[in-house]
Amino acid sequence: MFTITTKGVWPKAIGADGYYLYDEGTDQIKWSGPSGNKSGYSFEGGTTEARLDGTEFTLGTFTHHNGWLDGNGVNEFDVDLKVNIVFDDGTTSDLSFRFHHNETDGDHNPDLVDLPSFISPETVKVDGAEYKVMISGFKQDGQIVRRFVSDEGGSNTADVVALFSRLPAKPDLVITDVRFKGTGKAQADEYVEFLNRGTEPADISGWKLGADDAGQNFTFPAGATVQPGHRIRVYTNENHPEWGGYTYGFNKAIWNNQGDVARLHDKSGKSVHAFPYGDKA
């Protein structure tokens, strides 16, 4: 474990034709329509502990100051962020990321922020090894999500969560969460969450998720792939396309409310990752 300090600036917006831009090259960037009402982003860095084993850490805090804008025919554009990281030995690296902004139509529709480029093009060298830095999502309402949803008329904030992914590039699928206490009858909304923390797509065709009990294996279908930095979930008996659409389709609870171990095996049967959960674990 080591300490890093981060600081971010917003050098430019791309495709924001018709908007007036303000404060480019600082830790905040704003835009407005003809009325002068402003919206914008800010990024607050800080000091945090980080590891090189794929463990996620907070890169900084992202805020969307969401003011009402009069329409100018352009709803979507990109905004670039440059983050400077200073390591505790004094070495420094600059990283580049791109955010995609959607102003949406209507007075009450939330704006949307996506991450079309979540892997920095730059390479970071630590202790003689090379890494890419990957944004794995926004931590919003206690969950790490790819899309930041920003309600109109206020400032909405989320931590930007990142990790170091070691080169050479390869996939690295791990279990990140088990929701083992669902709600309602048969706990249909239980799920297991996975993250590909590598910089290459993970082909998981034929891989199995097991709950350590006979008859409770889930096999991923042919063509199942997890892109770098993406999360998927396997639900007990719900279908969520935004999380990959995977479900056991069982009408009974799977995951032990007292705790156990969720296990992931590749198609050869080799154990890839184990995730203890709950009090029993």
What labels describe this entry?
281 residues; Immunoglobulin-like; 2 domains
Task: Tell me what the structure shows.
By secondary structure, the protein is mainly β. It has 2 domains: 2-166, no CATH class; 173-277, Lamin Tail domain (Immunoglobulin-like). Helix content is 0%, strand content 53%. It has no helices and 24 strands. Strands 2, 3, 4, 6, 10, 11, 12 and 14 form an 8-stranded antiparallel sheet that branches. It has a 6-stranded antiparallel sheet with strand order 5-1-7-8-9-13, with no helix packed on it. A 4-stranded mixed sheet has the order 15-16-21-22, with no helix packed on it. β18 (208-210) and β19 (217-219) form a beta hairpin.
Estimate percent helicity.
under 10%
The main sheet comes to: 8 strands, antiparallel
Question: Roughly what is the average pLDDT, rounded to an integer?
Answer: 93
Low-confidence stretches: none
Overall body shape: globular
Number of domains: 2
Strand content: over 45%
> What is the succession of H and E elements?
EEEEEEEEEEEEEEEEEEEEEEEE
End-to-end CA span: 24 Å
Oligomeric grouping of the chains: single chain
State the total count of DSSP E strands: 24
Number of helices: 0
Calculate Rg over CA atoms: 21 Å
What class do helices, strands and sheet pairing give? mainly beta
